[in-house]
Amino acid sequence: MIYKIKSNSENYLNNIKNDTSLSQHIKKGIIKDFSLNKPVNFILYIDKNESIYKAEIDTQTRLKLGDNAMNVTSIMAGDSYVYYTNLLTGQLLFQSSYFPDLLINSDTINWEFTGEVKKIGKYMCHEAIAYSVSDQFSGLKVIRPVVAWYAPDIPLKFGIGGFSGLSGLIIEMLVHYETGTLSYSAIDIAIKSNDEIVIEKPTGKKMFTQQEYINYVKKIRGSH
């Protein structure tokens, strides 16, 4: 499954422009960084009861290829993270390429169902929202409910990153961060034979809860 992710940071940049506490130099730097934004693809690999969700081109690979240009969309979407789900064991884990020794138990998403339906492509999709979501990607704060549209006709409980557990595959999703809104769209829903996909569960020397991981990252950032 391939998801295309786009970002809209118009409101955030307007706030930056009107922020009198920031110098013009800093404002220009932020606006320049966001002007380089472009859509990115993430891939959801599924094999029976396991899945891996990650960027089509992760941060480390992009840098090795010599692409040093910042893409805030990719960063906001969590291009340094790999998510692993096992429906049989109930495991929902993620790992950052910046901290490969750490394995984090992702928080369970509590979905609420609105009863709204709409057709996306050939699928009739149902709306679900999540109100209580902690910092998910790169320490970014979610400021509004997450909105997901899922297709019961594709009965896969896997999802986008840590957003999973619905009774159908998520076809579209909106996540509102302080720095902008990410919109996710499934652009390729391909069911392949199991022998084409190998799911490698991430490993780490230390296990953290999601909140422990967030506190750990904040502590490291504060020490620099």
SSE topology sketch:
Elements: E1 2-8, H1 10-17, H2 24-35, E2 40-47, E3 50-55, H3 59-64, H4 72-76, E4 81-86, E5 91-96, E6 102-105, E7 111-120, E8 123-130, E9 146-151, E10 169-177, E11 180-188, E12 206-209, H5 210-222
Parallel strand pairs: 6-12
Antiparallel strand pairs: 1-2, 1-11, 2-3, 3-4, 4-5, 5-6, 7-8, 8-9, 9-10, 10-11
Task: Provide tags for this entry.
224 residues; twelve-stranded mixed sheet; alpha+beta; globular
Walk me through the structure:
The chain is built from five helices and twelve strands. It has 224 residues and is α+β, with helices and mostly antiparallel strands. It has one domain. Strands 7-8-9-10-11-1-2-3-4-5-6-12 form a twelve-stranded mixed beta sheet. A hairpin with a 2-residue loop joins strand 7 and strand 8. The protein starts with a strand and ends with a helix.
Summarize the structure.
The chain is an alpha+beta fold and 224 residues long. It has helices at 10-17, 24-35, 59-64, 72-76, 210-222; strands spanning 2-8, 40-47, 50-55, 81-86, 91-96, 102-105, 111-120, 123-130, 146-151, 169-177, 180-188, 206-209.
Largest sheet: 12 strands, mixed
Helical run tally: 5
The ordered H/E elements are EHHEEHHEEEEEEEEEH
Given the helix and strand composition, which structural class is it? alpha+beta
Low-pLDDT runs of 5+ residues are none
Kindly estimate the percentage of residues that lie in beta strands according to DSSP.
35-45%
Query: What's the rounded overall pLDDT mean?
Result: 85
Number of domains: 1
- Range of helix content: 10-25%
Overall shape: globular
Distance between the termini: 39 Å
